[in-house]
Every structure is written in structure tokens, then in C-alpha cells.
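To: structure desk
From: M.T.
Subject: fold request, one chain
Message: Could you run this one when you get a chance? Sequence is below, nothing fancy, just the single chain.
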Amino acid sequence: TFLCKTQYRAKSFLPLTTLEWNKLDITVKGSPSINSFKNKYKEKFFPKYNSLYSLAFNSSHRFHTRLRLKFSQLKQHLFTYNIVDSPICPFCEVKEETTYHYLLECPTFGTHRIKLYVAIIGILKSDFLSEMSENDLLNLFLYGSDKLDYQSNAKVFEAVQIYIENTKRFTMVY
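Reply: Done. C-alpha cells follow.
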């Protein structure tokens, strides 16, 4: 652990890398070879290819991918890379603007979210939805679900991409 006087220094290469290394699972850190380490690291941190990720219903599929990769224009993502000074949502100014906040919480996009939920209810069975936590719902929006067939997942992705396009969040300059 490095003691740093500033946040800027704490997020520089060596302190941040050390912190990330310490967070790694012991099975990954204890790999017997570099190739074994790489394979275990990839399994843990890189999602397997999913043909759903190639679906593009409109120009928002790029932003959908960026949300999945945590590499979007959301304040929390930009803050992680020291691009902005604060992760706080510029619209509600109450919580950090995470993917969860953008898709499920921010009051600014409430009307669009209702339309998204109506679309999702039309696609999925109500008992399937009632069993889902909010984190499950977020994962459904970003990655799809193993419990659904390809067509249902594709329709969910279409609804999410329409939500992204309608909110115009990623075309805003502030």
C-alpha cells in the first residue's frame, strides 16, 4: 500500500496497479505461469463473446457497449480515469453517475425509463421480472440473460438501445 498526499498521485500507475493487484483473487495471483495468469485473468475480467453484443438497432449500440465496458461518458467512468473531478451526476446532483444510476435511478430520465419498463414488460413474463433484483435487471440490460432465448434477449437489447437514444445522454455537452 502506498501513502499518497493527493488523489492524483494515488491514481497514478504504481499505487493504482498495486491496489488492483492486491484485489486479485488468490487463484489468479498464484498462477504457475504467465500464460496461466493471463487465461485466469481473462476468464475473470473479460466477458465471453456473446452474439447479442453485435446487435445494432440504432446508433446507440456503441453507447450500450461502452456502458457494458464501463468506458462511457458517465461521470463515474470518466472519474475513474481522472478525466473529471467528480463522479456526481450532473443532472440530479445527488448520487454518483454510475451505469446503475443512469439506467435505473436518475430522475432526469424517469419518463424514458417508464417507456423502457413498459417495453420490457411486453417482452418478458411478469413472474420472470418479479423474481429479479435491481442488479439482476441491470445485468439483463447490459448482458442479457441465460434464462431467456436469443429473441427475447435481442428485444431487451433493442429496448435498452432505444432508451439510450431517447435520453440523448451521450449526445449532451455540459
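Reply (cont.): Residues 150-167 form the longest helix (18 residues). Let me know if you need anything else for the meeting.
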